[in-house]
Amino acid sequence: MSERMRRVNESLRKVLADGVERLGDPSVGFVTVTGVRATTDFSQAIVYVSVLGSEKRRTRSLRALERAHGVLQQRVARELRLRRTPQLIFQYDETLDRALRMSELLDQVVPAPPPEEHVNETPDDRQPDLP
């Protein structure tokens, strides 16, 4: 990805994150715009979002974002002045879910380390290990 595309994607993310926050639609819920990936011709932009709550909450939030996409596209057009305003496609960002699942799997395979024995001691308080 070119530096210019990276900057445009980040600008889109910031404008959309602010726009989502200002929607004032309670059905949107707690949504965070985690990333944006626009096509090189700016015809489309996939907007990755995370949603706090259950899968039902996630579905409701994504539907609300789809209903509001016109308002958000207008905001992008007004604030960024790109050659072409991309069509916004909202997609749930599964990165956090995958990370949590990986953590669970690792916890099953690798046991947790034992608790520290010298919790309140500083390194200077401990006796050196002698051979």
List the helices and strands and how they pair.
Layout: H1 3-21, E1 31-38, E2 44-51, H2 55-67, H3 69-80, E3 87-92, H4 95-109
Parallel strand pairs: 2-3
Antiparallel strand pairs: 1-2
What does this structure look like?
The chain has 131 residues and is α+β, with helices and mostly antiparallel strands. It has a single domain, classed as K homology (KH) domain (GMP Synthetase, Chain A, domain 3), CATH 3.30.300. Helices cover 45% and strands 17% of the residues. The protein is built from 4 helices and 3 strands. It has a 3-stranded mixed β-sheet. A hairpin with a 5-residue loop joins β1 and β2. α1 crosses α3. The chain is elongated.
What keywords describe this structure?
single chain, alpha+beta, GMP Synthetase, Chain A, domain 3, three-stranded mixed sheet, 3 strands, elongated, 131 residues
Can you give me a brief rundown of this structure?
By secondary structure, the protein is an alpha+beta fold.
Computed Rg: 22 Å
Looking at the structure, what is the overall shape? Answer: elongated
Mean pLDDT score, rounded? 84
Work out the helicity level.
40-55%
Distance between the termini: 56 Å
User: What is the correct CATH architecture?
Assistant: 2-Layer Sandwich
CATH topology call: GMP Synthetase, Chain A, domain 3
Number of domains: 1
Strand content: 15-25%
Query: Count the strands?
Result: 3
The number of helical segments is: 4
The largest β sheet comes out as: 3 strands, mixed
The CATH H-level superfamily is K homology (KH) domain
How are the strands ordered across the major sheet?
1-2-3
| Main CATH class | Alpha Beta
Uncertain parts: none
